[in-house]
Amino acid sequence: MDPNVDLEDLGSQQLPDGQTLPIPPVILAELGNEPGKPTVCFYGHLDVQPATQADGWLTDPYTLTEVDGKLYGRGATDNKGPVLAWINAMSAFRALEEDLPVNIKVIIEGMEEAGSVALEELVKREKDRFFSSVDYIVISDNLWLSQRRPALIYGTRGNSYFTVEVTCRDQDFHSGTFGGILHEPMADLVALLGSLTDSAGHILIPGIYDDVAPLTEEEKELYGAIDLDLEEYRNSSRVKKFLFNTKEEILMHLWRYPSLSIHGIEGAFDEPGTKTVIPGRVIGKFSIRLVPHMNTSVVEKQVQQHLQYIFSQRNSSNQMDVSMVLGLHPWIADIKDHQYLAAKRAIKTVFGTEPDMIRDGSTIPIAKIFQDIIQKSVLMLPLGAVDDGEHSQNEKINRWNYIEGSKLFAAFFLEVAQLHE
Amino acid sequence: MDPNVDLEDLGSQQLPDGQTLPIPPVILAELGNEPGKPTVCFYGHLDVQPATQADGWLTDPYTLTEVDGKLYGRGATDNKGPVLAWINAMSAFRALEEDLPVNIKVIIEGMEEAGSVALEELVKREKDRFFSSVDYIVISDNLWLSQRRPALIYGTRGNSYFTVEVTCRDQDFHSGTFGGILHEPMADLVALLGSLTDSAGHILIPGIYDDVAPLTEEEKELYGAIDLDLEEYRNSSRVKKFLFNTKEEILMHLWRYPSLSIHGIEGAFDEPGTKTVIPGRVIGKFSIRLVPHMNTSVVEKQVQQHLQYIFSQRNSSNQMDVSMVLGLHPWIADIKDHQYLAAKRAIKTVFGTEPDMIRDGSTIPIAKIFQDIIQKSVLMLPLGAVDDGEHSQNEKINRWNYIEGSKLFAAFFLEVAQLHE
């Protein structure tokens, strides 16, 4: 049985500076095509975040270096280690001359860290070809919540990113010669941004919580079982005090409730020192992390209406413009899906424990893209430990995680084949 | 009678990059020292703002060029033209072989545009020597409020510049992995800044208006007489609508009432594009233009107390620090001083009209420095028209203003000598 491997051309992209560059091709591979077996598709990526030794790496970031059972190198955990572990699992069956219990498909891209440019178009194009026989999609591009206990990830938050621009004129003013007679754009903007949340982090936009999925008893129980030492978490985050005091509240507000963060202001005085300027045009930036079953277009309307109302109350002569510049839906899986049960059983076999059932508070668009376009179950099955340092200096994957992770994927093939029947 | 001219060494200054540069010396000159005559001291500066033709100059900024009765060149109105006019006025008496009716002192610096570095120390040092015999100080470093009608300036606003820093930790957070469980510094800061003014520009800091000088009938009448076309002013400012609708209200809120402007935020996301960051430490910057009889140390206390109160209401676990990084007092002259009456009479003689009695909403520290240290009357007697474009491209002084201004200074010498007796 030989694999079939294709390189899919994705065309080229134009950079902001006008330069045109080819997009790295996507690898589409398949191994086995037997009608009786389920087809499992693995998604991975081989591109990495930038790294130079000068950033504070203790080893050459581009030479994999083992120190005390840790394999250091850029991409070790994000995402080359998991890709190799998947290949190891497939190879194991061949080495043992055993029949693979599943048909395998693999999609590997080289643009994940740059926003998976053109991937959605490719998935749409291949929906009825490469993906037509796929039953399950597996992504292994996150981390566990702990150092030793494996996890399954069943949801990620979406994100609606907004700009709110307030303009008096295109030029700045001198605060000595104009201070006192203007509707100052910064005063308007600060009031608008200040109307978004209360001091307890609760979002004040009317209706924003209407579509948030109610908390069931079943879901509630998941949080209690999770392995998280709150005090250790707080210390390693270097935060004096969180908004909430219990593990359950903390996790729920990171995963299953929306949050609103103000990122900054463009166009005002942002440098060190003093400058007596009245900025003439300022752009506030904030975003809302969305959870099931919030919808980006409903959220956009709610934010627009709220800010229009607050602005109208000010009787300002300035102009206000609100835009949603990014709208990414949340993703949630049904943890009763066959492949979630299969993954749990595989974890039990390899690690001898139940997994933490967790979500990820940040936004990983590919899960939702696969779910929406291919309409099959997506599983996030991470291999790396919480301290792997993805995107940071001295990124690593533990030798133990890498080897047990390879076993986990092989065990998963067996379990998913069994449950699929 | 020969002038006595000295160059006063001011030592050297260290630039932010560590470089040490000598400060240009200050010229201290005197002409005449007769006990029966009043001594008038003129302050001027010869340094200028940067200028290159590429900024949009229609002529070489460093070659004085006359076009249609306008003398274009960097420094033409700020402040070389007025300095020359003063010299012209002195020269006129010599050319006519007439006795100067006043003793003259002149102080000319070369660091005004850089904040008059070391000038205050010099004035203190020379208080009982060079300045001991001075009766009146004249500054001609502003502009009229109109194109044709001369003005006397009798006040400038002070400035208290504040930073308010809110810190959760020294590093930023990712809004996906921390959004929802933090007291976010930007939310605190936006609430703090939003508590400073209402939407009508009124300052909400308790007690801030307590020391503002009450408006007298006499002062009120000054505003009505001033030559200002509000519609033209609004159009040339390119502002859709001011906070007030009458000339009197506009001028009072620029000159005799305090104003508060928010300048910007340091440490947040300030670039174009989107970034999903929760800034860990942010510094808000705002300043209050002060008017008689507000005091910087009282204002500092009021701002501190107000922000502490607002912050305490939020129960935030972040750290807040408020600092007044600059405190400059307002300056106001007694317009019944001899030299104000002398200047009015001189204007009547040369221009055939009463002057606009105006103030300047911005802060000119030297007037207050002279008033406080030498304790003599300070007069601001501008020569340039409102459209001279100081600090801008195509700065100019009108030939007419320059010549009539020279006459005005000579007439002022005669009037001040007469009133002083």
From TrEMBL, chains A, B:
Keyword flag Phosphoprotein: yes
Q: Name one GO biological process term.
A: proteolysis
Tell me the superkingdom of the source: Eukaryota
Keyword hit for Metal-binding: yes
For this UniProt record, the keywords arranged alphabetically read as follows: Hydrolase, Metal-binding, Metalloprotease, Phosphoprotein, Protease
User: What's the family?
Assistant: Belongs to the peptidase M20A family.
Name recorded for this polypeptide: Carnosine dipeptidase 1
Give the organism's phylogenetic lineage. Answer: Eukaryota, Metazoa, Chordata, Craniata, Vertebrata
